[in-house]
Amino acid sequence: MPKTLFVKHAVVIDSWGIVRLGVESALRKAGVATVGSMSSVSAFLSSEHGQVDVVVIGQVADMTMTAAVRRLSSISDLGIIVLASAVSPGAVMDICADGANSVVARDSADTDLGVAIDAALNGRRHVSPDLLDAMFNAKLAPVVRPKFDLTAREREVLTELAAGRTNSEISQRLLIGTETVKSHLNNIYDKLDVRRRTHAVSLALSAGLV
């Protein structure tokens, strides 16, 4: 059983209200002092989150889990706990590599979430026992990834796109004009043979381009 925690502020992000209520209850049992609740990562990023110590993120509709974790990990000193369900061992490792401190199965006991919070606050990693067993027992086949003739700049734009940023935000971060961003995106769509941003991001993630 983890020690009693005294967290300034924890936020639960999940599209399902009933899930948020359940996680909030579990957090309070673990000693979390204050709990906030939001349905999307975008809402959290646009809010005042300077005092937040831990974010527990589950199923969200506004961006991919990879993009969500990367965006959240850019916030200094923020502990990130992912509630996962039906994920592959490789996906668990990818989530941790993207910046998550802990990955907890959605059907885990309250105590497992408490352990995850304690780990996140103390700079450690935690993966639910069931997920950890699956990682060790899995025999991962080598992945053959298709190659795409993207330039270095197009890869940079694609990485920003996968992080959920708008054309304007990409322009500001890469110090290029918005029209140049649009030109790069059109080239990327042609090379990946897609027509939408979401399709480009999905293919980029599955092909290991970002």
Gross morphology is: globular
What is the highest CATH level, the class of the largest domain?
Alpha Beta
Q: State the total count of DSSP E strands.
A: 6
End-to-end distance: 38 Å
CATH topology of the largest domain: Rossmann fold
Contiguous helical run count? 10
Superfamily (CATH H level) name of the largest domain: Response regulator
What is the strand arrangement across the widest sheet?
A: 2-1-3-4-5-6
Low-confidence stretches: none
Which architecture name of the largest domain does CATH use?
3-Layer(aba) Sandwich
Question: Secondary-structure element sequence?
Answer: EHEHEHEHEHEHHHHH
Helicity, as a percent range: 40-55%
Structural class: alpha/beta
Give me the Rg, rounded. 18 Å
What is the typical, i.e. mean, pLDDT?
Answer: 84
Number of domains: 2
β content, as a range?
5-15%
- Could you give a short account of the major beta sheet? 6 strands, parallel
Could you explain the architecture of this structure?
The chain has 210 residues and is α/β, with parallel strands linked by helices. It folds into two domains: 10-137, Rossmann fold (3-Layer(aba) Sandwich), CATH 3.40.50; 152-206, Winged helix-like DNA-binding domain superfamily/Winged helix DNA-binding domain (Arc Repressor Mutant, subunit A, Orthogonal Bundle). It has ten helices and six strands. Strands 2-1-3-4-5-6 form a six-stranded parallel sheet, with helices on both faces. Helix 5 (110-121) links the parallel strand 5 (102-105) and strand 6. The longest helix is centred in the C-terminal third of the chain and has 15 residues, at 178-192.
